[in-house]
Amino acid sequence: MKTAPRGETGAGEVYVMKIGIIGAGKVGFSLGKFFAVGGLELAGYWSRSEESAREAAEFTGSRAYENLESLVRGCGALFFTTPDGAIIETYVCAREFGISGKFLCHCSGSLTAADAFPGAAERGAGALSLHPLFPVSSKYESYKELQNALFCIEGDCEPAAYFRSALEKLGAKTQLIPSKGKARYHAGCVMASNFMCALAREAAALLVSCGFTSEGAIGALAPLMRSNLEHIIADGPEAALTGPVERCDAATVRRHLENITEPKRRLLYKALSASLVEMAERRHPGADYGEIKKLTKITEQELNDR
Q1: Predicted structure pTM score
Q2: CB 9: neighbour CB atoms within 10 A?
Q3: Separation CA 236–CA 229 (nearest Å)
Q4: What is the pLDDT of residues 77-132, one digit of tens each?
Q5: How far apart are CA 177 and CA 267, in angstroms?
Q6: Of 236, 276, 234, 225, which Cα lies nearest the Cα of 252?
Q7: Contact, 64 vs 57, CB < 8 A?
Q8: Which of 181, 197, 204, 254 minimizes the number of CB atoms within 10 Å of its CB?
């Protein structure tokens, strides 16, 4: 097996693409280590912080490049693992050193490959986005879990196929998504992850208003949240649904709304209850949820008061 800037085959030999990582934060560290441990050809790192690049290179057994140009010229796959707001700016600098024949990749959840790498095709480069559906929280530990993560891939066919194959050989799951769906995909990820934090905060606030401490409220809700999440993962949201909406208990829903006086929290309760009604109706097609629908309908006044 030989290494080359790009993943090509010839004369019966398989060539492995050299990977250069631009940006040495948690994602850059973790992906690089995951690639290196899995046997991919990690050439090294360049970062605006020389110290970060050296640390990442030492951690992954690769090289810390002194400048962006040398990394770009020496690698066939360029991973831009900078903060989202710096990806385009960094790409614009990198493309001046020649990107023809290279694969360009970023790991942003919301940006498409075309968003991040404008004009890449005209310069002869393939572009993709590769988003690990996993909370990368540690520079030095998160790589151990990436094998169990799902990577969503979007972009040009050739680089997408190359890295989909490479990731699956490392044991990871992959999912191809269309460019037009990237923002919706990321919104779904945010709902599943970040919105859980918001829901926990709002639920705990209601308990705090009844005399719980903040810590006590989260502790009291923890078994309920944990059990429900496990049920959702195992059987799906609809099967996991319980509570007053599911059992068509309009009186309890009315009592809740009479006592949730904060406009923002009241809107949240109503909006999510509407989704619960849709699930409940599928489970119990003969039940009449008309009264709950009336109770949870968001009025124009409530929208103005939020």
Answers
A1: 0.85
A2: 8
A3: 9
A4: 999 999 999 999 999 999 999 999 999 999 999 999 999 999 999 999 999 999 99
A5: 32
A6: 276
A7: yes
A8: 197
